[in-house]
Request: fold
Amino acid sequence: MKTILCVDDDQDILDTFKIILETEGYKAVCTPDSTHIFHLIEETTPALIILDINMEGVNGLEICRSLGSNPNTLDIPVIIVSADPRIDTAINEYGATDILLKPFTLKELQDTVDYYLGSRIVSMY
Reply:
């Protein structure tokens, strides 16, 4: 079972990610605390990271850049989540793998995750 690390300061969003991803057959590790992201990566060895970029007191884009420059996390796809449609520069500038614009649909989340993890599990939705 592939693990997905979800980082967002909105607990409702994390709960939604967890339900959807686990229904799809993934293990979802969710945290509202981005300060422990590298520790969680070591503990869980995620196949993919979903990262909100607008968290209180934290610049998610800088976390994304750090993930992309760290040899231990360089190969982990990072999908950033944002409500700002101008964020498309983050892919080149900060090393994000892809972007999910809020509000996104269940299908957009499923398709994006499945694209990067190379699997498709039949959805219950």
Q: What stands out?
A: Residues 120-125 have pLDDT under 50 and may be disordered.
